[in-house]
Amino acid sequence: LDLRNEDLKELQELGQGNGGSVKKVEHVPTGKIMAKKIVLIDAKPSVRKQILRELQIMHDCHCDYIISFYGAFLSDPNICMCIEYMDKGSLDGIYKKIGPIDIDVVGKVALAVLEGLTYLYDVHRIIHRDIKPSNILANSKGQIKICDFGVSGELINSIADTFVGTSTYMSPERIQGAQYTVKSDVWSLGISLIELALGRFPFSEDDSDDSDLSDLEDFEGTLSPQRPGSLSGMPLPPARKKEKKPKNGETSKKDKRKSKGVSLQGSGMTMSILELLQHIVNEPAPRLTPEGRFPKEAEEFIDSCLFKDPEERVTPKELLKHSWIDRARTDTIDLEAWTSTF
Ligand code: ATP
Ligand code: MG
To answer: Which UniProt keywords apply (predicted)?
Structure first.
């Protein structure tokens, strides 16, 4: 299929992320409905062509748990990727609409993500790098698939150079600068599953006692005037009492530079994010709480995703053998019926 921008009729805006936007489109010559992801890339033509070449690997990704790829093209100054349209959207949108997701459905999500990650790694040696609810999609057939994985090294580099990506699902070892491994994806999966089951981002007021955050004086140069209550719409730890005001508007620009690699949904959020990253590194990992509310197997599965030491954490492939995942596999819960409820 030779995709050209002229052949794509825009139908609807599906959402906006840090690096671009996603639109529902119709490929007019074939009538096929697709999602067109537009990524703004500030890179040389040679790099852009390289990215396009690297993206072609996605043509070889055939797995029920991975979004299908129809093609990519340059549309100055953007790179456009056409992928399978998932009519129920991403899981973050779903839980924000319907509230906490039933733990049995969460089990099916865990199974789908682990299958997808194992396929990507075993067949293509690809590490996802960005597991989070907004990159897990559902459709009305009851299928669950992952998208936005790191196929293109050049794209990862360019994005890192041009804007900052989300970091709050990042594992402690990644925050501390270690190499990405499949185990970092497992951490992100653990955080995402808690978020779905609780209906809120796990690092939030209720379970952060904030007592460790007193050495944040190191970062006072980057403090922001206002304490935004949310990052990507998610609650953050409570505000610090001792915030110092920056002198002027200049500060926010400087903040962005300083915190490269840290998500900023707008200026003035640097403090909250540093606080959060520090919390992830220094505090015990979040858990599926309150104890007893969820099946023991689910609690234990999440605990094993969230070992802070990557040596202790197991790979997606090993996690597929966990008893909670076994149970999810044989569970007869009807996901198609579930998706028809919203
Ligand atoms: P970030 O930029 O931080 O990774 P994100 O994942 O939300 O955040 P995008 O990947 O640009 O950002 O996606 C924006 C939104 O578009 C998603 O939250 C999702 O709801 C929607 N979306 C993405 N891909 C599809 C798709 N294939 N089908 C349907 N909706 C999609
Ligand atoms: Mg995404």
So the answer is: ATP-binding, Kinase, Nucleotide-binding, Serine/threonine-protein kinase, Transferase
